[in-house]
Amino acid sequence: MSSAREIQPGQLVCSKSGRDKDRCYLVLKVIDQYFVHLVDGDVRKLDRPKRKNIKHLQVLPTTAGELAEKLKAGESITNAEVRQAISQTIGNG
Amino acid sequence: MIVLKSDRELAYMREAGRVVARVREELVKAVKPGVSTGELDSLAEDLIRKQGAISSFKGYNGFPACICTSINEEVVHGIPGLRRLETGDIISIDIGAEINGFHGDAAITVPVGEVDKEVQRLLTVTEESLVAGIEKAISGNRLSDISHAVQSTAEKHGFGVVRDYVGHGIGRKMHEEPQVPNFGLPGRGPRLREGMTLAIEPMINMGTHEVRTLADNWTVVTKDNLPSAHFEHTIAITDRGTEILTA
After folding, report:
1. Which of B71, B135, B136, B232 is the most exposed place for a label (fewest CB within 10 A)?
2. CA B79 to CA B38: how far, in whole Å?
3. Does B62 contact A90 at a Cβ distance shorter than 8 Å?
4. Count H helices, E strands: chain A?
5. Strand order across the beta sheet in which B228-230 lies
6. What is the pLDDT of residues B71-99, one digit of tens each?
7. pLDDT surpassing 90 at residue A66
8. For residue A54, what are the CA distances in angstroms to A27, A34, A51, B212?
9. Is the pLDDT of residue A33 over 60?
10. What pLDDT is recorded for position A92?
11. What is each CA distance from B200 to A42, A70, B98, B170, B179, in whole angstroms?
């Protein structure tokens, strides 16, 4: 199974370290080559995304397809959509 | 961090590779018009279990099946289901198995019955590009020598090399470092050393290299809906040269 090459908005990721270890997020924005903004629609909503070092993330081989297209097109997404995308693919324990 | 494998660990990986190779052989025989991808998945599950191994894919970040089945314009990560194969289709089957804590990973694209000449050429070239990549996987080379060999083989024939998904290191985990892209300039990246185990997997599209993900969040398809092929082997770099573990 191939792995996803680089982090893009809409990518699903898992935290590898920190107090949120093992929590799954959707990448909202790639800030620079080191940091991204993450949301899970629950603890981290769209108005208060989490800034996280890419080094501390595991990039999952799955992307929230529809949300990725919306983010690319500059359309807005909702917290419910983010929660749904995460629970549909991986779930948050 | 790139994990180098000891001789004993390589022995385990050989075993995992053999399991995957056997399953792939049986699945290729089972590909016929009228067979559903779900049936192929249950066949794979049986074959993996009978050999005392478990599927590396099932449950991996929520993936629901033992194998990935990607038909025609589907590039990778297609989920097996009710869809039945038709004559003229091509199906990429990606298999991963874990035994004794080590993983093996391989993929092959098979034509269903008679296929279009151009599609057949896509399959041949994709397999050739995998071989070209493996030939560069020798101790002392750089990682991107593999990438460059794959890319130049595929692009010479006018096909597109998928950028967004890449090969990977493999061992105790299915996805380890380093990533093995199928494109790039030669002579870059980490130097290849004995004990490295890599999954080299060119994904080659007939048209554009661009891809998108469907609403199931897994299935990756080509943007222009032209067919795509995928071949993969797990290899080990040893003191006796390159060894294909899933052959």
Report:
1. B135
2. 9
3. yes
4. 2, 6
5. B160-161, B203-205, B228-230
6. 999 999 999 999 999 999 999 999 999 99
7. no
8. 10, 6, 9, 22
9. yes
10. 61
11. 38, 32, 18, 10, 9
Would the ipTM clear 0.85, i.e. be above it?
no
> Helix, strand, or coil here: B67?
strand
Do residues B77 and B220 make contact, with C-beta atoms less than 8 angstroms apart? Answer: yes
The nearest alpha carbon in chain A to B183 belongs to A5
B68–A contact, CB cutoff 8 A: yes
Is-cis flag, bond preceding B178, omega within 30?
Answer: yes
Would an 8 Å CB–CB cutoff place B96 in contact with chain A? Answer: yes
For residue A3, the model assigns a pLDDT of 84
Work out the mean pLDDT of chain B and round it to a whole number. Answer: 95
* One-letter amino acid of B11: A
Residue of chain B nearest A90, judged by CA positions: B62
Using a CB-CB distance cutoff of 8 angstroms, which residues of chain A are in contact with residue B68?
1
Q: How many residues does chain B have?
A: 247
Q: What span, in angstroms and rounded, lies between the C-alpha atoms of B84 and B231?
A: 22
pLDDT grade for B215, boundaries at 50, 70 and 90: confident
Go through B86-116 and write b for each residue having 16 or more CB atoms within 10 A of its CB, e for each that does not.
eeebbbbbbbbbbbeebbbbbbbbbbbeebe
Cross-chain residue pair A68–B213, CB shorter than 8 Å: yes
DSSP A31-68: -SSSEEEEE-SSSS-TTSPEEEEGGGEEEEEEE-HHHH
Distances (CA, A) of B208 to A73, B75, B90, B119, B156: 20, 12, 18, 15, 14
Is the pTM value of this prediction over 0.80?
A: yes
Interval B193-199 mean pLDDT: 96
Please answer yes or no on whether A2 and B203 come within 8 Å at the CB atom: yes
Using the 8-state DSSP alphabet, how is residue B36 labeled?
A: B
Query: Which one-letter DSSP state was computed for residue A4?
Result: E
Q: Six-digit token pair at B5?
A: 């494998």
